[in-house]
Write a structure and sequence with these properties.
Blueprint (H helix, E strand, L loop, with lengths): L2 E10 L2 E11 L3 E6 L5 H8 L7 E6 L2 E2 L4 H5 L2 E4 L12 H7 L8 H14 L15 H14 L4 E5 L7 H13 L3 E5 L11 E6 L2 E6 L1 H13 L1
């Protein structure tokens, strides 16, 4: 997908969060890094219309989000940092089915899609598990499964490894490396981005660096040490 920011400014509660962004994002794997409060999450939420620009326009594959929000959202899945903000129902397959009702009206089709996605993630054994019995890493994978069930073209993941132990962090990285969907990942886990095609560094609402992972991460680390 081609994601375009055209002179985008975002203000909230009288404060400028993002200022005059002009971006064209088309790479298969894009990382976004920066200090807390730099504007990373706000930038990501503009892509699927969770936030609306105060000025400027966001376009997805030639569609202006302002006028085609429903159509755009059907192509994009957002995975939040805290899976408890995303998981609603008490049993895994019930939660996954809820997000599919508008897409697949027949229960048999929904269940087939759910098991297909859980199979891809090697999580079939969790289908009937109560969410309350899952670990943090398992919940994060359920959130990812919920996003994938909708067959999006673009995945946006906000700090996906923040609450994971090393085992689940490595598992998530392996899964992401094999998914066919385009992905934009916001993270402080710099090592996760080493195989990506492009990394943006955000600071105080501006893109202050934009390069390949090795160059962008090295620049950001030097900046943090200065």
């Amino acid at each position: 997908m081609l994601i375009e920011f055209k002179s985008v400014t975002l203000e909230r509660s009288g404060r400028t969060i993002l200022k005059d962004l002009n971006l064209s994002l088309v790479q298969h794997r894009i990382g976004i890094i920066g200090d807390n409060g730099a504007g990373k999450s706000s930038l990501a939420r503009l892509i699927n219309g969770l936030l609306t620009p105060s000025d400027g326009e966001v376009w997805i594959d030639g569609l202006n989000i302002a006028g085609r929000l429903t159509e755009v959202r059907q192509q994009i899945a957002f995975v939040f940092q805290n899976p408890d903000n995303q998981i609603v129902f008490p049993v895994v397959d019930e939660d996954l089915a809820f997000g599919l009702k508008a897409i697949l009206p027949h229960a048999r089709d929904r269940q087939a899609r759910i098991m297909e996605v859980l199979g891809v993630l090697d999580m079939q054994d969790l289908a009937k598990r109560p969410v309350a019995q899952l670990s943090g890493g398992q919940k994060q994978l359920v959130s990812l499964a919920g996003a994938l069930c909708r067959s999006p073209k673009l995945m946006i993941l906000d700090e996906p490894t923040a609450q994971l132990d090393l085992r689940y962090r490595n598992r998530l990285q392996s899964i992401l490396s094999e998914l066919p969907q385009q992905a934009i990942v916001l993270t402080h886990d710099l090592a996760m981005l080493e195989t990506f095609e492009r990394v943006l560094v955000i600071d105080k609402g501006h893109v202050v660096h934009d390069a390949t992972p090795s160059v962008a991460i090295a620049w950001y680390e030097r900046r943090c040490q200065a």
